Amino acid sequence: MTLTSINVNISGVPTEVKLEEIEINKIFLDQDNPRIGFYRDAQPFSDFTQEHITHALSNKNPDAYSKLKENIEINEGIVNPIWVEPKQDGTYLVLEGNTRLLIYRELNEKYITKNVYKKILCRVLPQKISDDQRNFIKLEAHLRGTTPWDAYEKARYLFYLWNKEGYSKDQLATRTKLTKDEITQFIDAFKDMEQQYLPKYTDPSEVLKFSFFMEYEKNKKLKREMEINALTLSDFCDWVGERKIPKAQDVRELRHLIENEESRKVFIKEGFEYAQEILGTIKPEIISPLYQNIEKIIEDLKSLSNYEIVQMQDGDQPMKKQMILDLQKEVNDFVSRYFNKDV
């Protein structure tokens, strides 16, 4: 039974969307869900069943899955309806909300006598919507949604849309929370891993190193310093793969180690921590926690997403805005007090 019906623009196309409660046994999980893309591609079989999707979704991030399940169980339902596409045989395919449907299935088995989990609230699209509309819904749900999305899977999907579906980076920027520069960084970091890192370091867990490559692609000064010293992306891959860089955030400090000849040699041979000790004796100010934090704040402010800036401008993030204003005041007072005495 249709509860209500509204017309919305989906990828610029006026589309009638119905709100309905649908029996969960009529709805199927989406094997093309971008959140499980790497898991699907890593399997040695082509027939990706509902059972495989169930395993991928429930094991992708067990803590997040458990918290969402607990929330749905306590509330006895969902707040945001899932998006489904009707098929000609009378069934439906989930476009957004696969995990919530899976949790409903599990809770329905747990509470057999309750009717609350036998149906799920859905936004029902017309039959035969376009690929562009499907992609728009997935982008809205996964890139603009409130549920955190694994950075590697996010990059993988952006690369797919750019490389396979023909979306320009400008188009992707208008449909996400990301700037064009951020989209470029995601795509380039994904290419770095896919083309150079993962072919050499093949353990599936190595995808967790994606944040190292995001830091690398964001750091123009590091890439410039590496080029000056005849070091390449292949070298960086080996440093990550051989654990010479302990944490992704250490990539932000790597430029200083490479800049100095002595610390550079130690880093290439022994790794980040030994090289940092050497650099600390040569340029102690570089490894000072205070100045490292200042440099980090500068870089983080430069890379702040346009979406987050707009949120602060519109008053949606007043505490964040106030913290930045407090920082501005402290810096201005410090400069005025110690550096601008003649002003």
Topology diagram in text:
Layout: E1 2-10, E2 13-23, E3 27-28, H1 37-41, H2 50-60, H3 62-75, E4 82-86, E5 92-96, H4 98-110, E6 119-124, H5 131-143, H6 151-163, H7 169-174, H8 180-197, H9 210-218, H10 220-228, H11 233-241, H12 254-259, H13 261-270, H14 272-282, H15 289-302, H16 306-313, H17 318-338
Parallel strand pairs: 3-5, 4-6
Antiparallel strand pairs: 1-2, 2-6, 4-5
Helix pairs in contact: 3-4, 6-8, 8-9, 8-11, 13-14
Tally of individual domains: 4
Task: List low-confidence stretches.
Answer: none
For the record, give the distance between the C-alpha atoms at the N and C termini, rounded to a whole number. 73 Å
Number of helices: 17
Strand order of the largest sheet: 1-2-6-4-5-3
Strand percentage: 5-15%
The average pLDDT score comes to 88
Main pleated sheet: 6 strands, mixed
CATH superfamily of the largest domain: Conserved hypothetical protein from pyrococcus furiosus pfu- 392566-001, ParB domain
Can you tell me the CATH topology of the largest domain?
Answer: Conserved hypothetical protein from pyrococcus furiosus pfu- 392566-001, ParB domain
Radius of gyration, in angstroms, nearest whole number: 24 Å
Task: Decide which structural class fits the backbone.
Answer: alpha/beta
SSE pattern: EEEHHHEEHEHHHHHHHHHHHHH
Description of the molecule:
By secondary structure, this protein is α/β, with parallel strands linked by helices. It folds into 4 domains: 2-143, Conserved hypothetical protein from pyrococcus furiosus pfu- 392566-001, ParB domain, CATH 3.90.1530.10; 150-218, no CATH class; 220-303, no CATH class; 304-335, no CATH class. The chain is 55% helix and 11% strand. It contains 17 helices and 6 strands. A hairpin with a 5-residue loop joins strand 4 and strand 5. It is globular, with a radius of gyration of 24 Å. 27% of the residues are buried.
